[in-house]
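so my prof wants the structure for this chain in the tokens format not the other one, which i didnt know existed until like an hour ago. anyway here's the sequence
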Amino acid sequence: MSNNTAKFIELDVVSGDGSGEAVEGPRATTSLFNRHVPLANPQAQFDLLHSVVLKGGPSGTGDFDTDLTASGWDRLQPETLDIFQINLGKLCNMTCRHCHVDAGPNRTEENMDRETVDACLAAIDRSGAHTVDLTGGAPELNPHFTYLVDECVARGLHVIDRCNLTILTVQRYRHLSEWFAEREVEVVCSLPHYRKLGTDAQRGDGTYEKSLVALRALNKVGYGQGDPARVLTLVTNPVGAFLAGNQGSLESEWKAALWKHHGVTFDRLLALNNMPISRYLEWLEEKGMVAEYQARLLEAFNPSTIAGLMCRNTLSVSWEGYLYDCDFNQQLDMKMDLAGARPHVSEFDPTKWKQHVIRTDRHCYGCTAGAGSGCGGAIS
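here's what i got, hopefully its the right format
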């Protein structure tokens, strides 16, 4: 998958190394899994993160659990289960360098089957969650995606589709913009920057123009117009090794720029920090910046973000049906600790979820740095 015209599973693959683009940040790549590199193993990622000597933070130790205690939190536990997040698989038509899922066109085997989808629906029914958040990979590529969305809509649930935008320009998925609008699905779209330079550098040449095509298609069916039934949310994360900027200021800047230059509108912007895991961690290692970036996150540790962490109101389910505290823990294979109970969606017990202790590690500083960062954007 070395050029922008390569094909795989009959999808347009957005790739390329962004050569010639003067942007210092991660470039589009292939998956760690496909390259058989050590960092494809979660344990190798932990080993690299823990090889850094960190000093600072509330406890001065560089240990997240100790910093929680120093911040007045004896145990990090769930509060109310609002969001049932399902990762439908690692299959994607893109291979972005910042991807914490290590998704790509080659990940054809890791796709949730119908039995697990139905187990998710049964768990949703007893969870009390009001929102179902569908992610991937490109969740739209799962063969049971439309079935799952329709089942959730029929239950009166709010559905979020985490979309990479370019999938909406592939012939067989171009109808999804209108399909989403009919079902009042919130579309949350990844776009690293409102300029071509930053977006193509991180996600592959041609990504920006395809993203604009998709955004215009969404605007055409009523998204991004202030209609609460057709919410269009953009998600940005830094191209380099720095923290996300002020979400409110960025939103105003993005709205003005996209409207002025492209006639595109959207409803809200989420600004996320990059997690030092998976392909972003690989880039940090290549640049010799693993220690620098972790120190930056630790220095920006903000105790006021802890109460609003997504792991306290969100359940994360992997394509295999295993339960995790968040999508980042999922990619590091940190299965939920349910006091001896099997952490699988088919046996989900809301009471045990409420009582369990959330698992943390050094990557969690990414969610508590600055204004905080999570699937819902800035926290404080």
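also thought this was worth mentioning. The chain has a mean pLDDT of 90.
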